[in-house]
Amino acid sequence: MVTLPGDGGRATTAGDAMAVVDARGIITGWSEGARLLTGYTAREITGRPVSQLIAPEAETAWRELREGGGAVVGIRLRNGRRTQLALRVCPLRGERGEPGGYVITAAPDDGGRTLGELAFRQASVSMSIFDIEQRYLRMNDTACRVMDRAEEEFLGRFYPDTVEDAEHSRGFQRHLRKVVETGQPVRYESWTRAPSGKRMHAWNSEMWPLRDPSGHLLGVALAAFDSSEQHLARQRLALLNKAATSIGTRLDVIHTARELAELAVPQLADFASVDLLDSVLQGEEPVAGPVADDLQLRRVAHHSRTAGVPEAAIDLGGADVYPPSSPPAHALATGAAVLTRTGEADLDTWLARHDERAAKLRGCDDREFSLMAVPLVARGTALGVAVFVRMLTPRSPDAFDQDDVSLAQELASRAAVCVDNARRYTREHTTALALQRSLLPQVVTGQAAVEFASRYLPALSQAGVGGDWFDVIPLSGTRVALVVGDVVGHGIHASVTMGRLRTAVWTLADVDLPPDELLTHLDDLVGHLAADESGMGSEIGATCLYALYDPVARRCTIASAGHPPPAVLYPDGTVEVVGVSAGPVLGVGGLPFESTELDMPEGAVLALYTDGLIEARDLDVDAGTAALCASLAAPAGNLEDVCDNVLKALLPERPADDVALLLARTRALDTAQVAVWDLPADPAVVATARQYATEQLTDWGLDEAAFVTELVVSELVTNAIRYGGAPIQLRLIRDRALICEVSDASSTSPHLRRARTFDEGGRGLLLVAQLTDRWGTRPTGTGKTIWAEQTLPVQ
Prior knowledge:
Blueprint: E1 2-3, E2 11-12, E3 17-21, E4 27-30, H1 32-38, H2 42-45, H3 58-68, E5 70-76, E6 82-93, E7 99-106, H4 110-122, E8 126-131, E9 136-139, H5 141-147, H6 167-182, E10 186-193, E11 200-211, E12 217-226, H7 228-246, H8 253-264, E13 271-276, H9 278-281, E14 295-304, E15 319-322, H10 327-334, E16 338-341, H11 345-353, H12 355-362, E17 369-378, E18 381-391, H13 402-439, E19 450-457, E20 466-474, E21 480-490, H14 492-510, H15 515-532, E22 542-550, E23 555-561, E24 567-569, E25 575-577, E26 595-599, E27 605-609, H16 611-614, H17 621-633, H18 639-650, E28 659-666, E29 674-679, H19 685-700, H20 706-724, E30 728-734, E31 737-744, H21 764-771, E32 774-779, E33 784-791
Antiparallel strand pairs: 1-2, 3-4, 3-7, 5-6, 6-7, 8-9, 8-12, 10-11, 11-12, 13-14, 13-18, 14-15, 16-17, 17-18, 19-28, 20-21, 21-22, 22-23, 23-26, 24-25, 24-27, 27-28, 29-30, 30-31, 31-33, 32-33
Helix pairs in contact: 7-8, 7-13, 8-13, 13-14, 14-15, 17-18, 19-20, 20-21
């Protein structure tokens, strides 16, 4: 080993490439290492100018080498190739100190070491080296710029002492220790703010162990890549993916707007609001074309990073007028997003002229913000506008950029489609509900057979309004029909079908058909309706339960077409499900219906309902029916309370199907209110019948009705004797009205006709129709009954 002067004491090994050059630049010495490196032998190269080995610009490179003591220069190899070598020059002095030449040395890997050092120093990524105790050993220039301090201030210091105590710093240190403990490379991602900057950055750090040639662990090296753009892009993509499942979860305009506002904060903005046109909230079709100059929008949703939404100047449900120059109005007018910030004229002018917003801004510590107004447009029609606000602070100085605008437009576009779908559903739902409610009974008068209470609850689901209905139909002879039905399906079609069936039931009930016959005719009607609509691809299915209660006989006759059976709450508190034959669903056709009769004591409560009641909590039919019976038996002051008890016990907060409930408490007519006479088929008995009626009216204190009643009895009994035949029965009923009934053995119903001048008959029924308020006929098991009703004065 030879120590050369002027080289800082560096030892030159035998393996080093070394050349000796005299003062004239002629090579006078050549080592074995130089031969191995260049391919030239000492005999071939000695005596030649050193400039012949240097390329290109040999003289310039040789001068820089002599003056600088070292440089990376190009060298010509013996095989004709060129290579870059890091050379060091050590001057030689004579005995008197005069220049005597130079010693040039180059180790085989010096060029690589020098280039590596340059690459480390000049790398565009942050690179650092730590010892196994997490103390700094090296930092490149980029790392120093990120940390905003020189390398000398970090060398030898413990990593935690150089950063803030935060989760990302602790995570970074944990990964440094993990490399030391496992000896394996690791990766660490963090979202943090570098000491040298104000903006947040995403850092993707690769850490790996450093070992000497023997494999001994010396420390940990790392390279940190700024992956902020990729991180933000992933966040935007994740937000869009989340929007696909979190916006439009319900067909509700306001709920959809709220989902948009809550999704945008805090991922995109510090505050978000959604304002819609009133027509959208009402389910109407928005007016196409340009918006009005003074645009009025209604606040339906807003959300803030800060609890209480302190930024909101408009309350939820409140309306505000936006001038044409305001960002929301401009966005709706142009159909494009508006990006602005405080300091720009239009925004500042609008804020200054709006008292509430100006007051909010004056009371805010951070008055600088960036704002995006994005129109909500669906099918080319403006629905409203979404406004996103980001507060600009020293720690968060980044205003919205075009990437944020693109993201906001995607979110707004998705929300607008969902809002429009909800608006259209609202319109159809409102129309169907209004139609259905108009078809349901409003006020039932003219009957005293039952006291009733009812509830109708439309479904709060996306399926729409259904076809449930109920009815209380007054019939002749103080009887009453109780009806409940359910059309399969939802929407306007179901409501219209329900209205047609309800009308048909009223018509058939007016004919006074028995329950089983009525359902047979109704089944035929549904079959005809289904055949008429078969070309439309729609089917009609419905269930119905028809109960006929007679307060004189105190009996109830019930027939069902695939409908759940009714329940009866008896006066003693017991509850029983009526064992009726379910019968086929309406529209099946060709199958019979059966009637069930049961005695109904006065004060019993008959409960009729649709299947949505007993299946509302996902219970099976038996469990739902048992819960219904238990709720009917619960203490209650009146029928309204019973209804409330039933709904509270059986219905969830959001029933998935329509529910109709009809409760009827039976009344009974006292025997003193009914008079019955069996009459022979003899014309002479007509006078006796009139006498019976007159005497009975006197007993009831209804002498003022005697004249009309005598005429009615005379005509009806005469017709029964002449055209009907025995058995003949006369019955008078005194209730809210005076009812006269005559039954005979004929099933032929009479009808009004206009008698000619010389006809001896044909005027009787016309006279009855003119003297009474109502009249009609109904079939009986042995013939028919003709009845006439007179209104009595209020006692």
